[in-house]
């Protein structure tokens, strides 16, 4: 019986980590930390992540890179792009991008199904689809059609030999290791009694000051230095602090800019977790620590993955901006056990002057025809995604052309937007950033833009010039604003 590449992994992350530490005691910690990506990325595309990991072990000499065409810093663990001797192969900006490319490349060989995520595999288009549905057929010499991943004899069999050793690694019968949650700074400041947690809302602080870590935020809240705002837990790249008792509500949901879950998930029924992004912080560690704290609280309160949401899901604020800017929200959801990074939203039609005008809403309706009966001049009926459905909107070919030019052709001179600018381009920018759309470049728009600029590593001057437009286009094409 042959081994399908598509399917659910058999080996666990723990077994994969134990195997590589056994065969390569000097394996870098960064490799141990990235093993979980094989499972989460494989789950996204329906590819067995344990097979991909075994393949990486073969291609890299168990991550020693001895005799390998690639090096660790390339984040290319499967020789992608090495089509002949002496070629260096492709490089990727982050380990999970390289692993995602490998998973997608395996899917190209094994299946005709479309990709779930944005394609990052630079050689996906060169593969004859479904030519190697089995591991045994990945070797060109063993493939019935004479195609495959590698030319070496028994390539697929060598992967399976490694996989068998991984699966044979013993599993430790203990609960998942979670971070310690420091409770020394809990207070009732900025909170109220009688909360029953049903949701977990993920934020990040947007405080880039030096030393603005979890302890500093928890202490500031404990000492009464926050006005009108609080959270239950603050997490950074080394530790986590609880600041509010979980049976008390915290002020973290905020003002609504058109979020689909606003009013459903609120300060009375949710736990707020803030990931700290202080100057010089390690994003990957802070991200993983936030995942661990979230999983711990999910288990403690019986909250399922579908009820773990981003601040953006609730009120359409660009938060957690650091995670969203890197396109990591789907990965966050996968790591906490979600089948897909989607949130169930009640499908109501809402009558408003603008989508962001929740306070002036005339009503919410399950049936569009009922909404039309109560519609008034000057108002618009929006669906649950914020799309205007009535009255019929006039087609704006100029704005459509702006969007096409933004995402496809950037050699034109796009308008420079800054404080005081007004117009269609500002509305477009506001919609992308997830702030209230009014066409006026004010304080909220500038703040959201500066946060985006910091997160993508460009000068945070709060001015949207050519460099910022290019970064925005990159993220729109990568689907990271959704």
List keywords for this structure.
four-stranded antiparallel sheet; alpha/beta; disordered C terminus; 482 residues; 4 domains; six-stranded mixed sheet; 15 helices; Lysozyme
Care to describe what's here?
- With 482 residues, the protein is α/β, with parallel strands linked by helices.
- It has four domains: 13-167, Lysozyme (Orthogonal Bundle); 181-335, Lysozyme-like; 349-390, no CATH class; 397-477, Muramoyl-pentapeptide Carboxypeptidase, domain 1.
- 35% of the residues lie in helices and 8% in strands.
- The chain has a six-stranded mixed sheet.
- Strand 4 and strand 5 form a beta hairpin.
- Helix 3 packs across helix 5 (155-167).
- The two termini are 42 Å apart.
- The relative contact order is 0.08.
- Residues 173-177, 340-345, 396-411 and 478-482 have low confidence and may be disordered.
What secondary-structure arrangement, pairings included, does this model have?
Blueprint: H1 13-23, H2 29-45, H3 49-60, H4 95-110, H5 155-167, E1 181-182, E2 191-192, E3 199-204, H6 214-222, E4 233-235, E5 240-242, E6 249-250, E7 270-275, H7 283-301, E8 308-310, H8 311-315, H9 321-325, H10 329-335, E9 349-352, E10 363-365, H11 368-374, E11 380-382, E12 388-390, H12 397-408, H13 424-433, H14 443-455, H15 466-477
Parallel strand pairs: 1-5, 3-7, 3-8, 4-7
Antiparallel strand pairs: 2-6, 4-5, 9-10, 9-11, 11-12
